[in-house]
Amino acid sequence: MAKSSPYESGELTESIFLILLVLTRPTYGYRIMQQLKDMIDDVIVGPATMYTTLKKMKDAGWISEVSEDEGRILYEITQKGKDILLLDYQKKKNVVDVAKAFLEEEQ
Q: Does domain 12-106 have CATH number 1.10.3720.10?
């Protein structure tokens, strides 16, 4: 059975989750990549992946283009994107809470 797209299921990959998180403040594409690297060294998103992801997020209505300046586009999360981000955050938090309780029980 084929795995559904995160844009359909709302189950975000780590990189999509982090990109949406960064876009809670209006940001340019290149700056998003820099912020991701500053946040978590293990998360590396190249330019092709970044701009493909931004296009898909825009098509899904999760982000919008706020303005364009000298060829740079400023992106920002939409309310729909915030809702998806918060829902996915809660799911991830629940998993971590269960794992923490289970691991503490094992000690």
A: no
